[in-house]
Design goal:
Number of strands: 32
CATH architecture of the largest domain: 3-Layer(aba) Sandwich
CATH superfamily of the largest domain: Collagenase (Catalytic Domain)
Helix content: 10-25%
Strand content: 25-35%
Shape: globular
Structural class: alpha+beta
Largest sheet: 5 strands, mixed
């Protein structure tokens, strides 16, 4: 009996609970399917849910595929399904997987010669062009801004375009472009944002976060900075490489078990998971002086520390050994000024969301905040339920010029600690990384390579959820007993990411800034896919430069949707980064999207910030 995608004449020819979609319904030779897609997802390991109409009201389970060769030869092609691909009759498929206009997460998802424009909703396969003739029989060569010409999928009506896209006239041609009026609801019968789920089809917004640190699953809406949230009681949150919706809350009682009500940079609150971050050893961490001595009542804790004269920058890191949430609130300077973080420094409060239980705060995050660094005693306040919380402080006495890096290799094909020094691709990646930081007056100093082997390698070579990122970073170890050795950045290279809610993820910094100086905890490093190491090592080096910038305290020059900007006065701003080629900051190291142009520019103020992080010696 037929599995999903099998031949059939009647439902009796299909495995339960599948039914037969017949030739009269447009399926040559019949097609075993579940229609509509079950709320629990499609049965079988090689099936995915597809919507059979542009309005996304009719769904059916279809056979998964990578290329047309995976599909039946009687009129079926491997069709694009917005982030997935499945076998559909050619007459129903708006776009073939990998072709111009198809969804993608990375260049490898597109046909040979095409690249993935990640600034489009669910990505957009395209290539550079001079005229329409470069774009095939159905494509058009369209100016993306600034004279940058790229191929787009041609059309005559909306039914020929993917979900979230409409047939729009640009440069005199009809092309499938992002529809600004798209309804974020992808499955009207699904659960709203924030509710439990086991499969994307369970959710109104079309995405289910399935990860250990999101217990019971979490419905959300991807690319919400463009399409909005599927429910009114949700907030769109920029998470470095993507935007996702989280349900609003006033306090913990509004959230499901296993979730916390956390404050955003904007001041709003959403239900979010608590990352599995292991706190540093409360009795000390090598040469880092950890202090567990705070005062206060209720959930407000106060610590006092001194900063010496001649200090140019410092990091204070409060954390909870009991794994309670930590949220810095304000700081009284030696001169008596009271500095409110939510009001005056909200761009750094994102670590309360990303890390939760250990929250580095870096000063100054721009030259305009240089007055925050003064000699004398500081009074630092934060909220936590842990009365035994701890903290440590690291100072930077002069602008730093050297950054040490510890590379952890996790099943990277063809590269080990024994071969990295002579591996051409690894060295090309490192050369690009060195070149970028030389623009900031920083040289890459000691480079260490460490192999992750055995069960840990097998478990983490492919990262499938957020929790695995933090647990992998916790495998880092101090490279030595001195403070100089401790002040180094941990970079983990894995085989690939396979996180459904962050398609196309190339690399990730655990925090902005990351946890400095202590090792063996989930905030102490960065993780990158090595999928492009052999084919495009310079691209990997550029991605690494960008994410290490985050780890050292830099923000995106312009956030997705033009919703926020970094606090620096000399970085250009763009109101619509999703249209990157018209942006004045597209060539900057910290532009939010990777595009096919040089993005290694570093401004004087960005250099100021990088050199004042204590990790840069």
């Amino acid at each position: 009996m037929g599995a999903t995608g099998g031949f059939c004449t009647t439902t009796d020819d299909c495995q339960e609970p599948l039914t037969c979609l017949t030739e009269t319904e447009g399926f040559p030779g019949g097609y075993c399917s579940a229609q509509p897609c079950p709320q629990v997802g499609c049965p079988g390991s090689f099936a995915t849910c597809a919507f059979l109409d542009p309005a996304h009201t009719v769904s059916a389970c279809v056979e998964s595929c990578n290329t047309d060769m995976d599909c039946r030869t009687d009129g079926y092609i491997c069709a694009d399904l917005d982030g997935a691909s499945g076998c559909l009759p050619g007459s129903m498929a708006t776009t073939g997987a990998g072709s111009i206009g198809a969804s993608c997460a990375a260049d490898g998802d597109c046909d040979a010669g095409l690249t993935c424009m990640t600034n489009f909703v669910f990505g957009y396969c395209s290539k550079a062009c001079v005229s329409d003739g470069d774009c095939g029989s159905d494509g058009a060569c369209i100016d993306q801004g600034g004279g940058t010409m790229r191929c787009m999928d041609g059309c005559t009506n909306n039914s020929q375009c993917r979900f979230s896209y409409s047939c729009t006239v640009r440069d005199g041609s009809g092309v499938c472009d992002v529809d600004a009026t798209t309804d974020a609801v992808r499955n009207p019968s699904g659960q709203p944002d924030g509710q439990p789920c086991v499969n994307d089809i369970n959710c109104q917004g079309g995405t289910c976060i399935v990860a250990d640190d999101f217990p019971g699953g979490y419905c959300t809406t991807m690319d919400c900075d463009i399409v909005g949230c599927s429910t009114a009681n949700s907030t769109c949150v920029n998470l470095q490489r993507d935007s996702l919706c989280f349900v609003n809350c006033n306090d913990a009682s509004d959230c499901r078990d296993g979730y916390r009500c956390t404050t955003l940079e904007s001041g709003g609150k959403v239900c979010y998971s608590l990352p599995p971050i292991q706190a540093p050893d409360a009795v000390g961490s090598g040469s880092i002086n950890i202090v567990c001595d705070s005062t206060g009542s209720g959930n407000t804790r106060t610590v006092r520390f001194n900063i010496g004269s001649g200090t140019d920058g410092f990091v204070v890191v409060p954390f909870s050994p009991a794994q309670s949430e930590v949220a810095p609130t304000r700081m009284t300077l030696p001169d008596g000024q009271v500095f409110d973080f939510e009001r005056d420094y909200s761009f750094q409060t994102i670590n309360s969301l990303l890390l939760g239980t250990i929250v580095p705060m870096f000063f100054p995050a721009s030259p305009s905040f240089a007055y925050l660094v003064q000699p004398g005693q500081y009074v630092f306040e934060y909220e936590t339920d842990d009365a035994s919380s701890c903290y440590y402080v690291l100072e930077q006495s002069d602008p730093g010029t050297t950054l040490d890096v510890n590379f952890y290799l996790v099943g990277v094909p063809g590269v080990t600690s024994a071969t990295a020094d002579t591996d051409a691709s690894f060295q090309a990646m490192l050369s690009e990384f060195r070149s970028i930081y030389s623009n900031a007056g920083i040289s890459i100093g000691t480079v260490r390579t460490i192999d992750i082997t055995g069960a840990d390698r097998d478990r983490y070579a492919v990262i499938r959820d957020f929790g695995e990122i933090y647990r992998l970073l916790a495998l880092s170890t101090a490279p030595g007993s001195t403070l100089d050795e401790a002040l180094s950045v941990n970079v983990f290279l894995i085989q690939e990411f396979n996180i459904s809610e962050l398609p196309g993820l190339l690399g990730l910094s655990a925090g902005i800034p990351g946890v400095p100086g202590v090792h063996g905890n989930g905030g102490a490093g960065l993780v990158f896919t090595s999928a492009d190491l052999q084919g495009a090592p310079d691209q990997l080096g550029q991605t690494m430069g960008h994410e290490v910038g985050h780890f050292l305290g830099l923000r995106h020059t312009s956030e997705r949707g033009g919703s926020e900007y970094d606090p620096l006065d000399d970085t250009p701003r763009c109101s619509n980064p999703e249209d990157p080629y018209g942006c004045p900051d597209v060539g900057n190291l910290m532009f939010p999207f990777a595009v096919d142009t040089d993005q290694s520019s570093v401004t004087a103020n960005q250099r100021f910030v990088l050199q004042r992080n204590p990790l840069v010696k």
